[in-house]
Specification:
The chain is mainly beta and 74 residues long. A hairpin with a 4-residue loop joins strand 2 and strand 3.
Length: 74
């Protein structure tokens, strides 16, 4: 899948690409991060929302094993 939209932060250490699929009404994201510890990524329908109507993913590597946790607050 090709992601035509791209943003880069922190001198290229946090990169986000995305595409909107109008047939399924979904956003697809690809996150590429160079970090230690954990990494978070979140989206909201509008901002600021007082943490309402958002989705957040937190992931990382712990003891050599990758993990990803997703929190939805619609």
């Amino acid at each position: 899948m090709h992601f035509p939209n791209f943003l880069s932060f922190n001198n290229g250490n946090y990169n986000v690409s995305w595409i909107y699929n109008s047939e399924t009404d979904r956003l697809h994201f690809m996150i590429d991060v160079m970090a230690t510890g954990w990494v978070g990524f979140g989206v909201a329908r509008r901002a600021p929302t007082g943490m309402q109507g958002y989705d957040v993913a937190v992931g990382g590597v712990l003891n050599g094993l990758a993990y990803l946790q997703v929190k939805r607050n619609s």
